[in-house]
Amino acid sequence: MTRLSKIVEFVVSEASKVLVARENHVKLLVFSVIAEGHVLIEGVPGIAKTLTAKVVAKLLNLKFSRVQCTIDTLPSDIIGTKVFNQKIGDFEVKLGPIYTNILLVDEINRASPRTQSALLEAMQEKQVTIDGETIPLPRPFVVLATQNPIELEGTFPLPEAQLDRFYIKLTMGLLDKESLIALLKRGLKSIEKEFENLKPVADINDIVVAAEEIEKVYVDSSLYEYVARIVEYSHKHEAVRLGVTPRGALMLLQLAKEFALAEGRTYVIPDDIKAAAIPTLSHRILLKPEFIAEGYTGERVVLEVLSKVEVPKP
Prior knowledge:
The structure is a single chain. This protein is an alpha/beta fold. It folds into two domains: 3-204, Rossmann fold (3-Layer(aba) Sandwich), CATH 3.40.50.300; 217-308, Helicase, Ruva Protein, domain 3 (Orthogonal Bundle), CATH 1.10.8.80. It is built from 13 helices and eleven strands. It has helices at 3-15, 23-35, 49-59, 75-79, 113-125, 160-163, 177-197, 204-215, 221-236, 246-262, 270-281, 289-293, 298-308; strands spanning 38-42, 64-68, 80-85, 90-95, 102-106, 127-130, 133-136, 142-147, 166-171, 240-242, 286-287. The strands form four sheets. A five-stranded parallel beta sheet has the order 2-5-8-1-9. A two-stranded antiparallel sheet has the order 3-4. A hairpin with a 2-residue loop joins strand 6 (127-130) and strand 7. The chain starts with a helix and ends in a 6-residue tail after the last helix. The mean pLDDT is 93.
């Protein structure tokens, strides 16, 4: 087994003591933390978005912070500011909640564009600048940003530049009947108790080793060609205004490598790329307005692209 596969297996197993039917979401969040990639989580309130993030942070022994965005949330509320210290007679930096390993930005689309843009430097450069002073953030640093797809009044859609900085997009839906019954049988008190009893199953050193494994995964030349054709076809699709960016292609291959490692392989196969396609590409597809009106989504386009592009043969 690879180090990454061990971490994923242990975290998913322990997380199931608290969470119901969220194994795939937990797996993808662990992938994102190891790759230091940011995650956009979309789902209605009350489906355990915050709890899932807290469970992953606790099991990986990482520092966790949460910011609840509102229209009057200021950049300084997230990144921090300088305050005057009377004892020393000078200004000193007071760091905001962004100084953490996993930052949950709840309802990011409720924050103003100014506040959203304050996250860009942190997400891309892993640092913040406060009154001209640049401060590196702890590593790993991952932003988990949530969006409510239902309540859109008073929100600010994320700009394309910021959407492209998210490693993956997770869509968390409602539980099916059987899963809901299992949740009801556990009850709130039991879930809270199990969360408190969780113990870390990995640490930062394990994450660093797992991240190094990703770079060593072998990719055949035919699979580079396969990824390139997927990207190329995404631009040609009739519903698409702007297809997958080069960053999106890199993210696709990165996640495919993690899927391979999770299966105990040190080489990528086409199924890894297919599995990684929707999480990494669906939010990077910009659709034409007339196709949005017809009910097209980024996920639907990705599935159609995968069906059209020929899969490499071994």
